[in-house]
Structure formats: C-alpha cells, structure tokens
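Batch job 17 of 40 flagged for manual review because the log was empty.
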Amino acid sequence: MPKLTQHMKQVIKQQPVIFVATSDDLGRPNVSPKGALKIVDDDKLAFADLYSLKTRANLQANPRVAVAAVDPQTYTGYQFRGRAELLGEGPLFDEVSDLLARAPKGPQPMELWFEKAARELTAALARAGRRGVRPSQVILLHIEEIWNLTPGHEHEFWR
C-alpha cells in the first residue's frame, strides 16, 4: 500500500474542493465535488455522504473510487485510487458527524483545516435550505494507488 507523504497531505489540506470519481455497475462514470476530506491516516481518506445519491449508489454497486486533489495555482496534484468502505456507524462516522455538527459554531481544537472546509460546506448547504447536516454515511477510501497529476510527472505513481 502506498503512503501519503507530507506534500500530498498539504495539497489535500489546501484545496477547498476535491473531486470524487465513481462508476456504476455498467461502468458509467460520475464525478462529485466534495468540500471536506479527512486524512484518517497515511493510507486512508474519508469524506461524508451528504446528499450524494449517485455517489452512494455507485459505491454500493462498485466500491472502486478515485479522489483528485489539485492546486489550481500551481497545477500540483494527486489522484488517490482504491476501495471504498461505507460506514453508517462507528467511531469515524461519529467523529465526522460531530465535526460537521460543530462546524457552524467555529473552529474547535481539532483538525482546523477540516473544520474550515466543513463550515464552508454547511454554509453552502444552508443557502440551499438544508440545515442540521448529518451524513447518511462516511466513505472511507483505502488507498491502493497514488498518481501524480502534476504536469511533467504524469508517469509517477505508487502502489
């Protein structure tokens, strides 16, 4: 299993939006923007399923997923590919739910970058008339491959 480097973590933390790619059982692709991505450890990422009906249906049919984080200023970025695990309960589900619930109240002494992204996400959802955000599930990505998306480094990958 490849491991996230400090540089990869920094790229993830600096992006206000990351993109998640899934496909259904017939191979039809879907890309969904996500406003808060949590680094769980050196080979796992997590994001909340907030009104992502197509993403959830695709992951139930096909657990393969790719997440892309790219800095639009420098074009530095990475794609993280692997297998998704859908969590409807447990410590990670509770942690992400709590972070989202506290987000409108301001930063807490936890992962402040996730808190900032969660605040911005809950504000956008509130503008759309959705309050009291609680994920239906948390998607845990077990990273199996990492691809460098930086121009000139397209052939760099880790397995």
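Reviewer: the log was empty due to a logging misconfiguration, but the result itself is present. Residues 6-88+133-149 form a domain with the Pnp Oxidase; Chain A fold (CATH 2.30.110.10). Unflagging and moving on to job 18.
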